[in-house]
User: Which sequence fits this backbone?
């Protein structure tokens, strides 16, 4: 009886691709790349505003002048230079969770939520152009999806 065989060319390359996909490595790389993209957008400062920041309460006004007198704050405030600057833009990081299947973009500055959190952002920061983390993540979601798809497609193609 005659034997029939099937020969698969490129089997070693196919095995490598399947191992990558099985480990979800391309997905993890794509998510990491997407998170780094979002981090770059969130960390971007709006133009410096020279408009006055009005006090919202007497307590805030008294606190401001007490801190000014003690040297804890400086007027005019200079981004990244003034004594209590925590350098918000440079503080943003990307943290990997769930073995790389979750990427968290965050900042540990004490005042970050007042500047860039949708529910806590002060009116002054909103009016002077600071984007919230929620605004940026919503606006960039399609781009992040595109980045992940591009990385996974490249892995499937053996690149």
Assistant:
């Amino acid at each position: 009886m005659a034997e029939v065989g099937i020969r698969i060319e490129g089997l070693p390359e196919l095995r490598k691709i399947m191992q990558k996909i099985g480990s979800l490595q391309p997905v993890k790389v794509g998510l990491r790349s997407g998170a780094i993209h979002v981090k770059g957008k969130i960390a971007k400062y709006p133009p410096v505003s020279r408009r006055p920041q009005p006090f919202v309460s007497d307590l805030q006004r008294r606190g401001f002048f007490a801190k000014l007198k003690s040297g804890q704050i400086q007027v005019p405030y200079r981004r990244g230079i003034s004594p209590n600057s925590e350098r918000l833009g440079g503080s943003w990081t990307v943290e990997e969770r769930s073995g790389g299947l979750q990427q968290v973009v965050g900042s540990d500055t004490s005042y970050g939520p007042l500047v860039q959190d949708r529910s806590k952002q002060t009116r002054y920061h909103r009016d002077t152009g600071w984007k919230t983390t929620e605004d940026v993540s919503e606006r960039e979601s399609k781009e992040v999806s595109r980045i992940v798809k591009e990385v996974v497609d490249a892995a499937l193609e053996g690149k």
Remarks:
- The first helix runs from residue 11 to 22.
